[in-house]
Amino acid sequence: MYSATIILFLSIPLVLGSWSSFVIFLCYPFMIVRRIRNEEDVLRAELDGYSDYMERVRWRLIPYIW
User: Fold this and answer.
1) Rounded CA separation 31/13 (Å)
2) Cβ count near 11 (within 10 Å)
């Protein structure tokens, strides 16, 4: 879901031909990474077995990268 929103939000300025909005939307992936880390902290603290799940599933957003 997060990968799709990153692609969507970064492609909209290109489709519309607005380079200035593209520069603004470059901040979006960093916001998503922060949100993912926050969600992982909450899940790790409140959901039994989530730490084990995180060890089995290594890639969060982009396979073989992060």
Assistant:
1) 18
2) 12
- pLDDT exceeds 80 at position 5: yes
Question: To which H or E segment does residue 19 belong?
Answer: helix 19-25
Q: Residues 35-49: pLDDT tens digits?
A: 999 999 999 999 999
Q: So where are the chain's domains?
A: 2-56
Instruction: Name the residue with tokens 């993912």.
Output: 36
36: closest CA among 59, 64, 13, 11?
59
pTM over 0.85: no
Q: Can you give the length of the chain in residues?
A: 66
Question: CA neighbours within 13 Å on the CB side: how many for 62?
Answer: 8
